[in-house]
Amino acid sequence: MSEDVKLTKLAACAGCGAKVGAGELAKLFEGFEQPRDPNLLVGFDRADDAAVYRVSDDVALVQTLDFFPPIADDPFVFGAIAATNALSDIYAMGGEPKTALNIMMIPEDLDPGTVREILRGGATKVAEAGAIVCGGHSIYDREPKYGMAVTGLVHPRCILTNAGAHVGDALIYTKPLGIGIVTTAAKAGLVGRAAADEVESLMMTLNRPARDAMVRYRVHACTDVTGFAVMGHMLEMAQGADAAIELEAAAFELLDGARDLAAMGIVPAGAYRNRRYAEDAADLSGIPLDMADVLFDPQTSGGLMISVDPADASALLADLDPVVPAARLVGHVVEREPGSSRVRVH
Prior knowledge:
This protein has eleven helices and 13 strands. It is of the alpha+beta class.
C-alpha cells in the first residue's frame, strides 16, 4: 500500500465517532454478575472513564483502554491523537499515567513506514505525559485502528469520578467544542488546511495541565468529554449525582466554523446516536439546531468537564487561564425537581 495513502479513507468512521452508543452499551452489560472485591473502587457498574483498584492504603491503580479508526491522514498525528485520547481517561480520574500498551489493527498491505509513524506518534505523547510504553498487541484487519491501554496511579482518597458532583458546583470545560463536526468536514475536503491543523493540534493537546490545576482545588467530579458528547456525558454526571445540570450554550468556546458546518448538515453519525440516547432526558428548547448539534457532537480527545466547589471556581479558572486558555465556566449542578429534565441548556 502506498505511503501517501489517506488513512481516513480506509475507515468508515473516524475517531470517537465510531463508539458504540451509550444506550446500546448499557443494554449489553445488563444482568452481568461480578465477584465482589472491596478493593475495586470503580468498575463497569458505573459509567465512568476508567477502572480503579486499590492496592494499598495510599495507592490505587487507574486502568483504561481506548482505540479507534483514523481521525487524521498523517500517521504520526493519528497515533498522537489516539494516545492523547487514551491518556485523558487517567487525567479525568485525577490520576497520573505511568505505563501504556499499544493496541493496533492494520491492513496486511499497509506500508511499514506508516505503521511505524503511528506508533511513534503514540510513543511521543506517552513520553510527554511522563509515562512509558511497555509493549502491546497487534493483529491484521481490513481497517486500521490504534489506541492504548493505560495504567496510572492515584491516592484512593483523591479519586475523581463522574458521579460525585455536588448541588451548587460550578462546571468548567477546558477545550473548544466541534471536534467531530470539523474532522468530518476535513475528511470530506470541506475545510482548508488551517482548520484541519487547528483541530488536529487540539486533539493532540494533553489534558495534563488541566488535571494538574484541578487537583489543587475542591473538585467533586470530573469526566473527559469524548464520544458521548457534552450532552451524553452530562447526562451521566447528572444521573450519578442524582441532580440536574444547567448549561449555558453561549459560554462554550467553539472551533471556528463548527456551527456553520452543523447548519450545513456536516454532522458525524455519532451525533445522532448521542441525540437518541440523551434527548429524552434533556431540555434544549430555544437552542438553535446547529448549536444543539454541537452539543451532541462526539469529541475525539476532548476536554475535561470539572465539577468544582463554587467558592473555588474563580481561582481554578485563573490557574487554568495561562495553560488551558479555552477553559470556560459553562454551567452549574442544581437540584432536580421531580419529572424535570436531567440536563437543561439555556
